[in-house]
Amino acid sequence: MARGTTGGSRVGRGARRPELRLPPLEPWAGDGLEPDGDYDGLEFTDADLTGQDAAGARFMDCALRGCAVDGTKLRHARVLDTALTGPRGVGTDLSEATLRDVELTDPRLGGTQLHGAVLERVVVRGGKIDYLNLRMARLRDVVFESCVLVEPDFGGARLERVEFVDCALKGVDFTGATLKDVDLRGAAPLEIARGLDRLSGAVIGTGQLLDLAPVLAAALGIRVE
């Protein structure tokens, strides 16, 4: 099970990180995932889950290592107290899923769908995720650390105690998002494509402000000569 720990005092209250203590795990010996399946205390190693349907399934105290998740359907799934290491795939569907006390390490993902999902005490560490869809999602106590996010979409999402630590944030969309105690100081580069007007509730560094100045000026209709 996981226990939350208090992060550093970067902005307001720091994000609480999961601290996983997995029990002894049994190797997964199934032929495939099932909708509404119940997976407890299992280890999935190099499993090919491509295109499988596990909508509504529950993963509790599990470890998934090196699994292929191209087009895997996990809509409404619950991923709890679980470590995901090295997942790879395009178009994984986790829309309206719940991720709580989860460590995601070294992902290689593209077009992952987390629309309307709930993320609480989640760490994403290392790796690269292209076109991450977090529209209308709720993120609380989430840390993105040493990873690359290309054109992530937080449109309409609510972010509370979210930290970006030593990571690249390219072409991010904050349109309609609500930010509270969000620390962007560790994002380099910090490239905001849309939603500059939603940065109330976030903190950025002086250098980042200078980098964003041309975009801010354009958004405000200011001509700089």
UniProtKB/TrEMBL annotation:
<dbReference type="InterPro" id="IPR051082">
    <property type="entry name" value="Pentapeptide-BTB/POZ_domain"/>
</dbReference>
<dbReference type="Pfam" id="PF00805">
    <property type="entry name" value="Pentapeptide"/>
</dbReference>
<dbReference type="Pfam" id="PF13599">
    <property type="entry name" value="Pentapeptide_4"/>
</dbReference>
<feature type="region of interest" description="Disordered">
    <location>
        <begin position="1"/>
        <end position="41"/>
    </location>
</feature>
<dbReference type="InterPro" id="IPR001646">
    <property type="entry name" value="5peptide_repeat"/>
</dbReference>
<feature type="compositionally biased region" description="Gly residues">
    <location>
        <begin position="1"/>
        <end position="11"/>
    </location>
</feature>
<protein>
    <submittedName>
        <fullName>Uncharacterized protein YjbI with pentapeptide repeats</fullName>
    </submittedName>
</protein>
